[in-house]
Each structure stands twice: as C-alpha cells, then as structure tokens.
Amino acid sequence: ARRAASMSRFLEQLWAKGLCDNGPGDLRGGECAAENCQRCLGSGAQLVFDPAADSTTCKYNRPVYGAPTLFCGEAFSDNRGKAAAKEKCQCCRGQDAWLWFDSSAADGIGYTYCQKN
User: CB burial class (10 A; 0-12, 13-18, 19+) of residue 102?
Assistant: First the structure.
C-alpha cells in the first residue's frame, strides 16, 4: 500500500508539471500523439485543436478509473534496456527521444522518463 501511494503521489506531481508537447497545427492525428498527451497529464487527458489559433493543446481531464497510468515507455523500473519501451518513447516524442532512469524518483522506487532533446 505504501509503494502504491508513493507511485500515485509521484505521478500526480509529474502531471502537475504539465510538460506537454503542445504545438502549431493539428497534432491530433499523430501516431502516438494521444498517448504522449496522456504521458503528460494522465489517462483522462485529451488533445484539443483550436482552428482559430491553428494549434493543439493537451488538456487535463480527470483520470479514467482502471485505465493505464504509464505511457510512452515510462515505468516504475529501469526500462532503458527494453526495445519496446524505446520504440514507444520515440513514437511519442520523436526519433531523438531517449529513456532516462532516475533511481531516486518516487521515494526511491525509481522511474524511467521518456525525454526529448
């Protein structure tokens, strides 16, 4: 229970940072665009296109109960050596994206982040 609480608290803090890949144009059709938005703001997040501004923004919505909580190759373990995790990360954040493991994250549980250059 303590581990689950640490993981939940860590994800809430991560999502609060709102480090989303918002940008110009309609980005909703990208192969992993929806998953990347959920990586940023949780399972309830949705991409919203504003035609007047010609831009797409990841908008927060309450998490979907029972839905996955980890996206784009990120994990509460060292996922750097897993080819599928690397592929998901690069699909979400571009071919130059890479997995970075922080062993001290989430109260020492550790977390693999999908980073973008």
Answer: exposed
* Residue 23, token pair as written in the block: 């940008």
Q: CB of 86 within 8 A of CB of 73?
A: yes
Q: What is the pLDDT of residues 63-113, one digit of tens each?
A: 999 999 999 999 999 999 999 999 999 999 999 999 999 999 999 999 999
Distances (CA, A) of 28 to 33, 47, 87: 6, 6, 19
Q: Alpha-carbon distance 65 to 44, whole Å?
A: 9
Tokens of 79: 């996922």
What pTM does this model have?
A: 0.87
Angle, helices 83-93/33-41, rounded to nearest 10 degrees: 90
